[in-house]
């Protein structure tokens, strides 16, 4: 496989769950491709479908889930493959890092044994060689005194260190893809930075492709090459990290940016412009754009027609918004208002401005 070929291809992935109250449409048409060494950040609020998308990729959804579309790993279709084959891929060619490291670590075994076991599961090496590799991996993850600490149990490590042990385990088999689902969410900011550095070390050492799933656009800023923003189960914006941060073309992305504290020169201490309201129920999606009830830019068409992701003026940058071109040059504070103000008033102002300027687009 050449470095330019996609190692992971997700195409029009859909996932729904039948419930007593009806069908929950958790993922509605996600597509992306990942090449070796590339990092894709998937960003969205809880319930946006970002984690369900990756659970589908890893074959970890419950049997009741209805899955459509295609997930190809090195050209091989994964949807519908037997559990045994998926188990062999997981932990081997596709490694996972979850929010809670204790999901992956066994509390009753020393961490060195657990990493060594992962090494031996997929490599024909002796127990002594596997233990040596475990110590090397702990050292690479900047665990102090790695030979000694390899004998310690998970509870003897801090939360951030435990997560680095999980990343060391994920690296044990030089995976082709690392999927990290909210790996820094439970950690404070300094420890978050250490875990992100550990993930970058793992990616660089293995040249794996990485999917970094987070609710925090700030987390992917320095870590991702491309960013996929999800809302109500749909991809609403996809682009290079600079496209997403400097020229967002979907109001939801702009709103997420406005919710981040600014630390750059000249903007430090600026007032945040959070997005009012909450995401829609996936059981009962409104017709039209699912972001419309929260969007200060909404107009009549938004209430009836859901926008498809379409190319913007920048190559590789897609946005799902009827008025994405209107966002050019806009800052969050130009579109979103402080939470004490009513977005509906702002939408009315926007419509009035358009009318004054010669009619809505
Ligand atoms: S399509 Fe309409 S409601 Fe949806 S994000 Fe764009 S302007 Fe807002």
Automatic annotation (TrEMBL):
Q: Name one GO biological process term.
A: peptide transport
Q: Tell me which InterPro entries the record gives.
A: AAA+_ATPase, ABC_Ni/Peptide_Import, ABC_transporter-like_ATP-bd, ABC_transporter-like_CS, Oligopep_ABC_C, P-loop_NTPase
How would you describe this protein's topology in the membrane? Peripheral membrane protein
PANTHER family to which the protein is assigned, alphabetical: DIPEPTIDE TRANSPORT ATP-BINDING PROTEIN DPPD, OLIGOPEPTIDE TRANSPORT ATP-BINDING PROTEIN APPD
Instruction: Supply the source organism's classification.
Output: Bacteria, Bacillati, Actinomycetota, Actinomycetes, Streptosporangiales
What's in the keyword line of the UniProt record?
ATP-binding, Cell membrane, Membrane, Nucleotide-binding, Transport
Quote the NCBIfam families the UniProt record gives. Answer: oligo_HPY
Tell me which SUPFAM superfamilies the record gives. Answer: P-loop containing nucleoside triphosphate hydrolases
Show where the ABC transporter domain sits.
8-257
Main subcellular localisation:
membrane
Q: What is this protein called?
A: ABC transporter ATP-binding protein
MF (Gene Ontology): ATP binding; ATP hydrolysis activity
Known Pfam families for this protein? Answer: ABC_tran (PF00005), oligo_HPY (PF08352)
Q: Which GO terms describe its cellular component?
A: plasma membrane
Q: Where in the cell is it found?
A: Cell membrane
State if NAD is listed as a keyword: no
């Amino acid at each position: 496989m050449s470095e330019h070929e996609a190692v992971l291809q997700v195409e029009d992935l859909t996932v729904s769950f039948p419930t007593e109250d009806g069908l929950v449409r958790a993922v509605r048409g996600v597509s992306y491709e990942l090449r070796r060494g590339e990092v894709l950040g998937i960003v969205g609020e809880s319930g946006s479908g970002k984690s369900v998308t990756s659970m589908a990729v890893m074959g970890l959804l419950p049997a009741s889930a209805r899955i459509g579309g295609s997930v190809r790993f090195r050209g091989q279709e994964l949807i519908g493959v037997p559990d045994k084959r998926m188990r062999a891929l997981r932990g081997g060619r596709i490694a996972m890092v979850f929010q809670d490291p204790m999901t992956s670590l066994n509390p009753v075994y020393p961490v060195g044994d657990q990493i060594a076991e992962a090494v031996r599961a997929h490599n024909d090496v002796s127990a002594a060689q596997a233990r040596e590799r475990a110590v090397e991996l702990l050292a690479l993850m900047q665990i102090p005194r790695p030979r000694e600490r390899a004998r310690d149990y998970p509870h003897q490590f801090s939360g951030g260190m435990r997560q680095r042990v999980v990343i060391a385990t994920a690296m044990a088999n030089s995976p082709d893809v690392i999927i990290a689902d909210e790996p820094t969410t439970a950690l404070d900011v300094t420890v978050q930075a250490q875990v992100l550095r550990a993930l970058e070390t793992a990616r660089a050492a293995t040249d794996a492709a990485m999917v970094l799933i987070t609710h925090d656009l700030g987390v992917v800023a320095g870590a991702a090459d491309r960013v996929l923003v999800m809302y109500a189960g749909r991809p609403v914006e996809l682009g290079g990290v600079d496209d997403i941060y400097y020229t967002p073309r979907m109001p939801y992305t702009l709103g997420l940016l406005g919710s981040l504290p600014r630390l750059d020169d000249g903007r430090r201490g600026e007032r945040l412009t959070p997005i009012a309201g909450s995401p829609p129920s996936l059981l009962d999606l409104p017709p039209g754009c699912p972001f419309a009830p929260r969007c200060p830019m909404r107009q009549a068409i938004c209430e009836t027609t859901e926008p498809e992701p379409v190319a913007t003026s920048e190559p590789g940058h897609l946005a799902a918004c009827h008025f994405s071109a209107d966002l050019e040059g806009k800052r969050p504070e130009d579109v979103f208002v402080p939470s004490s103000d009513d977005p509906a008033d702002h939408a009315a102002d926007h419509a009035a401005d358009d009318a004054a300027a010669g009619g809505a687009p």
